[in-house]
Amino acid sequence: MIHSPSRRQVLQFAAGFGAAVAAPWSRAAGGPVVLGTWGGDTERLLMQMVKTVKDGNSIDVKLDVGTPAARKTKMLSQLNRPQNAMDITFLVDSDVYLMSQANALRPLDPALIPGYANLLEEFRKPHSLPTMYSALVLVYSDKVKAPTAIADLWRAEYKVGLADLSYDKVIPMAAVAHGGSTSNFAPGYDALMKLKQQGMRVYSSNEAVGNAFKSGEINAAIMWKGRAYQWMEAGLPVRYGMPKEGAYPVNFEMAVTRNSGFPREAHQVLGAALLPEIQRSMALGLGQVPTTKNAGMPPDVAAKVGFTDQERERFMKPDFAHNAAKASEMLDFWNQRFKG
């Protein structure tokens, strides 16, 4: 039976989590609403949403840029404060699951989210708002034979690069490719150690993986389909393909912290993320797929970054409960054995 993680397991997962809870803290009435997010292209594109919220709702939004681990640590360390320093967190679906299990998130009130009716039914969740989604696929140089399976990356002809922040998705993908499953990571650990011995490289960001393709340092990777599309549009000689084992899907979700001091305003900000112009700019800028009915994506781009019904049916099925139970184990493996 799949079990949910204990509170102790969740707290252990947050790297660098401190045992002591700081003294009570609060912000002045009126905000700003603090949104924890990634930097780089995501931060740049979110600035359009920040301006929209300010102009349309007179709500000030401050972006708190950092790693997902930093966002989770901050949320967990402030669970017992009257007010969290972060009102909205932007995370992938597996991390949102972790935070919901730790009771760190406020249930959403759809009535407070403008445009919620345009959110596709499959993306309606009690504690989070998926703003876009994508999947990890095979990306390779057009100078090598196209790999058709994840397992192909272990062939000597491929110089493989992996993005550091995708570790908790690469591990189950490697497991599935070598006889395991998204609920049995052991074969994935063994396979990745073999890949390391073959000269595999880990890069700090998706952008760094793209640069490695450009320099010829690597010729194959596990990467977001949308990123590969962007690189191709920029003239990078790469291609992408769906692995026969299936792509690994991920939602990018916003959620309101349980002890946000500005929950009503935070819901308004979530509504801004559903506006057609924001959905389009985020999707086009990051190569992701919108989650709303009215995003108005150009059909040719939608076909290139999106997925057919058949491809979606073949997606791997992430086991969030197993990921949560094995979170510390995965992180230790990746940092201490695989990267070390």
Automatic annotation (TrEMBL):
Matches recorded under InterPro entries: SBP (IPR006059), TAT_signal (IPR006311)
Biological processes, Gene Ontology terms: thiamine transport
Keywords, comma-separated and alphabetical: Signal
Lyase recorded as keyword: no
GO cellular component: outer membrane-bounded periplasmic space
Database matches in PROSITE patterns: TAT (PS51318)
Molecular functions per Gene Ontology: thiamine binding; thiamine pyrophosphate binding
Protein name: Extracellular solute-binding protein
The organism of origin for this protein: Ramlibacter henchirensis
